[in-house]
Amino acid sequence: MTTTIRRATKEDGAAVGEVFLAARATMTYLPRLHTDEETRGHFARLTAEKETWVADREGQGVVGFAVIDGGWLEHLYVHPSRFNSGTGSKLFKQATTRHPQGFQFWAFQKNAGARRFYERNGCALVKLTDGQDNEEKEPDVLYVWPAPN
User: Fold this and answer.
1) What is the pTM of this model?
2) How many CA atoms lie less than 13 Å away from 113 in the CB half-sphere?
3) I want to staple 43 with a disulfide (CB 3.0 to 4.6 A). Which of 9, 11, 17, 102 is the partner?
4) What is the extent of the structural domain holding 112?
5) Overall domain count for the chain
6) DSSP for 92-149?
7) Which pLDDT score, from 0 to 100, does residue 147 have?
8) Looking at residue 48, which CATH number applies to its domain?
9) Residue 74 has pLDDT above 80, yes or no
10) Hey, is 69 helix, strand or coil?
11) How many Å apart are CA 63 and CA 88, to the nearest integer?
12) Cβ atoms 64, 85 nearer than 8 A
């Protein structure tokens, strides 16, 4: 089975929301702030309004996504069934290809797997915070890609 990266359509919104919910369920340190219905609605709107790319796995449908807007990688999530499968790398590569001038993004400090992934892919840690400015109130880290020389 192959995984292809393609531009999301409006019809992908529900599947994108499901990937987000599944991925976030593995982040047990995060508070649950919204209902599943609110989350699905949010990602349906986001997918329709912003540059969104999905990883579409033959036979499984959408298994990951990336949202890029105004110099920010706003989201990059992969379904837990596809962790460590190369799906995240394909999505990240798409983001770097589409935005070679670079971008920045936030990750949670406790998300060690994501942090290793980003650092392996040429991102530089710019700032650590106490999390008071994010909705979850969880310490986070600001990254930039590409890393400055």
Assistant:
1) 0.95
2) 11
3) 17
4) 3-145
5) 1
6) HHHHHHH-TT-EEEEEETT-HHHHHHHHHTT-EEEEE--STTSTT---EEEEEESPP-
7) 86
8) 3.40.630.30
9) yes
10) strand
11) 10
12) no
Q: Which two tokens stand for residue 13?
A: 């919104």
| Rounded Cα distance, 130 and 125, in Å | 15
Per-residue confidence (pLDDT) for residue 90, from 0 to 100? 97
Q: What is the CA radius of gyration of the chain?
A: 15
Looking at residue 4, its amino acid is T
Distance separating alpha carbons of residues 83 and 141, to the nearest angstrom: 21
Bridge partners of 64, per DSSP, are 55, 78
**Which tens digits make up the pLDDT trace of 46-69?**
999 999 999 999 888 999 999 999
CA–CA distance from 94 to each of 22, 31, 41, 70 (Å)?
22, 30, 25, 16
Confidence of residue 149 (pLDDT cuts 50, 70, 90): confident
Buried b (16+ CB within 10 A) or exposed e, 98-126: eeeeebebbbbeebeebbebbeebebeee
The contacts of residue 126 (CB under 8 Å, 6+ apart) are 104, 142, 143, 144
Give the residue ranges of DSSP H helices in 26-141. Answer: 36-49, 87-98, 112-120
Q: Give the pair of three-digit tokens for residue 90.
A: 């394909």
